[in-house]
């Protein structure tokens, strides 16, 4: 059977499914070799942070023609786009919270550069910057890294957020994320970390026990909007939050981390949409996983097994502990 790389439209949900059979060949990393380490021949001998084209992309700048399976009901499209890997450092075992803030700032700048560069392609509609951390979320390459996908469409979850933010702005004249952040600041109980430019909290409505949001204090809709001070502060709070997660159960804390920002060609959405980072960590205790079961997957009816008023103080204390012991 030939390898497939195409988009298939789901008429029930009004969204696209990426079909990428080449990803079945993704390897579990050998114990004696890492393509992301200097000396592998795959990366420069020296680097700080680095963009690496994904070897098994779901989207590509030169996609093959889709299979001849389309019908009037079932649409297909080329899997056009870009999938990139972001190498956080040349060190094979140094994870994001272990990097100095000055180094994480280089990562923030690289994210901004790639958001801008990928957004310059008129066929790219949305640029998603994210990290999967830990085997619990399916990571097969343990060298610390994130990823960037440039989609030829705006994915459904982002569209739902955009619609909610647009409706809230139309009804109140306010930004919804600004209002959520201000409400969390007013209540205080769910705040876990903050600095001059960003606030980290486990929001009232999250479906993960430690599902942190990081939101900018000022209304900014994309990472490219941040000035030097805000970029430094973003690096600082990323280190604080992720280091606190590790300190929480004294182990490497698995998570999915996603940067939500405006679609690259829809600048008008910046009036009502607001940059924020969402974490989806699967742990509910040191060795207990919160699984997504039938109700959550089949009905999109999330269920949080704990009250965030209980988990936020634990994470806040762990972040404070990590800050006391941190260097850089």
Description:
By secondary structure, the chain is of the alpha+beta class. Helices cover 28% and strands 21% of the residues. It contains six helices and 14 strands. It has helices at residues 101-119, 156-172, 176-187, 228-249, 294-298, 308-325, and strands spanning 5-10, 15-20, 50-53, 76-78, 82-87, 126-133, 145-151, 191-194, 198-201, 213-216, 255-260, 276-280, 283-285, 288-289. It has a nine-stranded antiparallel sheet, with helices on both faces. A hairpin with a 3-residue loop joins strand 8 (191-194) and strand 9 (198-201). Helix 1 (101-119) packs across helix 4 and helix 4 crosses helix 6 (308-325). The longest helix is centred in the last third of the chain and has 22 residues, at 228-249. It is globular and about 60 Å long. The chain starts with a strand and ends with a helix.
